[in-house]
Design a protein that fits this description.
With 69 residues, the protein is an alpha+beta fold. It has one helix spanning 57-67, and strands spanning 38-42, 48-52. The chain is built from one helix and two strands. The longest helix is centred in the last third of the chain and has 11 residues, at 57-67. The chain starts with 37 loop residues before the first strand and ends with a helix.
Length: 69
Amino acid sequence: MSGERAGVPKLPEPAFAEVWMGEPPALPASIAPLVPGLIGIALPSGIKVTVDAAVAIDALSRVIGALTR
């Protein structure tokens, strides 16, 4: 049974953004230095989320899902 028949809208398929690795950009002195062990996520909407390496993937998935609605 699909969720649409039960009155629950179907969630959109996830979208992915291009990612590339390189040298960190030079930051102005007013910005705190990067902290090892933190993961920065920038969503296409401009929202930025920072988590540490111990984040629960299920919780992070729910948070990102809520932010992209």
